[in-house]
Amino acid sequence: MKLATGAIVIHNGKLVDGNGGAPVADGIIIVRDGKIAYAGAAETAPPIGPDAQRIDARGGTIMPGLVEAHFHATYFNVADLPDLDTKYPAEYVTLRAAANCRLALECGYTAARSCGSLFNIDVWLKTAIEEDLHPGPRLATSGREICSRGGLMDWNPDYRQIGMQGLMLLIDGPVEARAAARKLVKDGVEWIKTYPSGDAAAAGGANDQHAICMDLDEMKAVADTAHNHGLKVTGHCRAAQSIKNALLAKYDCIEHATFMTNEALDMLLSANTPVVPALQFEKASATLGGQWGLSQAVIDGHWETLDGGMQSAQMILKAGGRLGMGGDYGFAWTPHGTYADELVFFVKDAGFTPLEVITCATRTGAEIMGRDMEFGSLEAGKLADILIVDGDVLADISLLSKRDKFIAVMQGGVVKAGQYAATMSDLSSSS
Ligand SMILES: [Zn+2]
């Protein structure tokens, strides 16, 4: 991805650095050749040359670009589990996924960790984004996911004689688990996503939110293979035992970690394993899912999951653990483009402070991606991946859900979206 050239000064804004430190009231950022040269108080800033391009934050907020930590580029309009699989051909899904990436960037998400994709689409999207062929967040890829046969993600009945080829690698036992992980190594993914447990989406059936869908030996086979090749591994873990198993297998991240026990929390903290709760999805499923025909058992399961997940997230943050912000957007009731509703949820429903939530959504997100040395906070030497918002985000977190309030979304100092980008394209089209 190309970096900006020359100097840019972002001034007249409250600076929120992404590290959780106190905001700087009159903050300034100096960008040189796409990287941050200075971020801090205006009064202590080094001199700025007259040729620097200036961006006025209009008294609003200057913060790091957001990181969507649980992103599914290929999900769209999902109202039922089978909608996740090959409902449409790969060609069309690829185009929709590209549009979703553009939208995520316009929503202020300058980076995203894919948590499962149809076929190998996210790997090639990442390539296209890195080549500046198409706009989108800096991606961490995962390709197809792994689940054991008969588990949550193996829903096609045998009489239909179709598998789950688009979305899943189905396994039985550690030998097949290792083979699936090795296939993903060859596909070029960075993360391997597994399904150690069921979900409320299957509540009332054999793979509900308390069901185990992979055995510990299968999880260890995936994790050991992934680690041997320098890949990371994560898992959809709701059932208490699935969380413990993921920690025993040395997973690098846990998705949801819904029904957390004290024992699992101790293990999580000592390994410093991050968790991505994804709770707005549960709230929206419970409150809106009825309109899309979700059964009462499924809705009840989502309420139970919301309750468990909220307690778990609060326990983790209070104990000093790490949480990423992201959340399965792409369902009918949580469409792409509403990603920041996750942040609003954590402030308004879970009682986190806006500063805590922003730290989770920036620095911790970058840490989960393994790229916190490059982005995720406003510090000298890091890429100028910056979001400038018209208004005080710490006073009103919901501003992050309002794209029309974005003055600029920058990657490597290049303005990619927001009002300032519109101004620039107006200028270029009139010239
Ligand atoms: Zn997901």
Short synopsis of the structure:
The chain has 431 residues and is an alpha/beta fold. The protein contains 11 helices and 17 strands. The chain has helices spanning 90-106, 121-130, 173-187, 216-228, 240-248, 262-271, 280-288, 296-318, 341-348, 354-368, 419-430; strands at residues 7-15, 24-32, 35-41, 53-56, 61-64, 66-71, 109-114, 138-140, 145-148, 168-171, 191-194, 232-237, 253-256, 275-276, 386-389, 406-411, 414-417.
The count of helical stretches stands at 11
Which structural class is indicated by helix and strand composition?
alpha/beta
Major β-sheet annotation? 8 strands, mixed
| SSE topology string | EEEEEEHEHEEEHEHEHEHEHHHHEEEH
Q: Specify the CATH class of the largest domain.
A: Alpha Beta
How many DSSP E strands?
17
The N- to C-terminal Cα distance equals: 26 Å
The whole-number mean of residue pLDDT values reads 95
